[in-house]
Amino acid sequence: EREKSVSSLQQEHGTLIAKIEERTDHVASLKSQISSVRERIERLDAFGPPLWMVNVGEERRRETMATILDGASGCNNWHMCDVNTMDLAPNFNEFKVKF
């Protein structure tokens, strides 16, 4: 009976190890996908306008007022910048050349 129990435990142990290896491979795959998505987000962030420029409606109006009241001057106030020159988009000229 002892040999039967040992055999059963060894079989369960083998099954568990196989499951752990499968999960480890799956986790490695997910980490790779996350890394890829992070790189894409960083690249897109570098060539797009700041996220806060995308806000619309009332929230944007409140942010504009907050910026004005903050006392910043010149191009520190996004609403006073020439958005067509894309001064607010980091590395935009490099992106334009590649595009």
Number of helices: 3
Q: Determine the strand fraction and express it as a percent band.
A: under 5%
**Fraction of residues in helix:** 55-70%
Question: What would you call the shape?
Answer: elongated
Number of domains: 1
Helix vs. strand class:
mainly alpha
- What is the overall pLDDT average? 71
Radius of gyration: 27 Å
| β-strand number | 0
Report on this structure.
There is one protein chain. The chain is mainly α and 99 residues long. The chain has one domain. It is 68% helix and 0% strand. The protein contains three helices and no strands. The longest helix has 46 residues, at 2-47. Mean pLDDT is 71; it is low at 70-75.
Write the SSE topology:
Elements: H1 2-47, H2 57-70, H3 92-98
Which properties best describe this structure?
3 helices, elongated, 68% helix, 99 residues, mainly alpha
Structure in a nutshell:
This protein is mainly alpha-helical.
